[in-house]
Amino acid sequence: MGAEGGSPGAEDAGPGLSTSLAEGLAAVGGDRIVLDLAGIEQRYEALCRELPGVRVRFAMKACPVGEVLAALGRRGAGIDAASPGEAEQALGAGIPVSRMHYGNTVKSDRDIAAAYRLGIRDFATDSLEDVAALAAHAPGARVFCRVATSGEGAVWGLRDKFGCRPAEAPRVLERAREGGLVPSGLSVHVGSQQLTPEAWHSALERLGGVLRALVRRGIRPDQINLGGGLPALGYLDRRGHPLRPPLEQMFAVIRKGMASLRRIHGGPLEFVMEPGRHLVADHGAIRAHVVRLAERRRPDGQLQHWLYLSCGKFNGLYEMDALQYRLVFPGHTEGPYVPAVLAGPTCDSDDAYSSEHALVPVPRALASGDPVWVLSCGAYAVSYTARGFNGFTPLPYTCTGSHGRPCVPTDGRDGRDG
Ligand SMILES: *Cc1c(COP(=O)(O)O)cnc(C)c1O
Questions:
Q1: Ligand 1 centroid distance, CA of 365 (Å)
Q2: Ligand 1, closest atom to CA 187?
Q3: Which sequence spans correspond to the domains of the chain?
Q4: Its Enzyme Commission number (predicted)?
Q5: Which of these, 82, 149, 172, 251, is most buried using a 10 Å CB contact count?
Q6: Ligand 1 binding residues, C-beta < 6 A
Q7: CATH assignment, 37-280
């Protein structure tokens, strides 16, 4: 059967299914993403408790939904925006611009000017070219330099494209100062869905080294940005085993690293963090349906079951090549089960679990139209979706569970309100 971790029963579906999310999923009639705002708020509060004094700025690309931004904003969270478009959306959701920064090192002159006009005064950077553009188009702004990490230990490493080598960071911030900008700090990103405390340890050591070099050169930044990368808790690996990230240990390493950075700095030093996935992944799920459970013969003659779902790589499960999701089959709490390849509805062969994925146990009695809940897909589902590939429109979403407010059903073609 392969996937012993992927228990199909709702009762032990793991960290991705709270009671309120299950109620939200059961209440919707058709396919949609259900986001549990109360769960997202609780995860935010838990993070604030674990890392006291760290200001949280949600990396909104993980779930650019107005209700989610507003719920986090009401609790005091800010936003890590990666474009003027994101900043505008966050402003519309009621996040004050003073709680936003521009966290993308990649930006055109026009993007910088637009963000500056919106009132953003904090920018990430990692190159002399970007610093020159910031000096020209965001005069006097605060800039923090992103230091590259190896990305080792993460499911998605984010290497190469971002950050400068530690030895180059002081030069970048010196140039910022020469250009009339305020060299305000340093940032890192350990890689998305980072699974090892060691990666946090080495990132914090790296920051410490750069901070020492800055202090020697008379630059005393006032802020360290620890980036994103904190994990979702409900994913299975490709073989179907729960990932079980050692979250407590990571927090302990981060707290220790923060204390050490404060010692190196010697003055007041603030900390910011930009979690995306960690805040939303386990509090969102997709209510999809069975397209077909089919038994087909492989080229070598062996019989194999395929479970085609109404959602897949192009509508909600963009990250399916690196993971397995926990599944719940609400109408089928008992077997018998058959091992199947999971696939989405489109005519693209990438829209399926790969040959590196274990087969998934699915109820043999599944019929076309039966509901399926795909858990822990609150991150990067609304945002990573094709426009209507093969005529499959983006999934609409519903928010449930905050302040007793009613659900906000959305049915627009692009999944948004209005
Ligand atoms: C995407 C991104 C994040 C969020 O990453 P997660 O792994 O989802 O936490 C944070 N900061 C920056 C700069 C990013 O690009």
A1: 40
A2: 13
A3: 37-280
A4: 4.1.1.17
A5: 149
A6: 59, 61-62, 80, 103, 189, 192, 227-230, 274-278
A7: 3.20.20.10
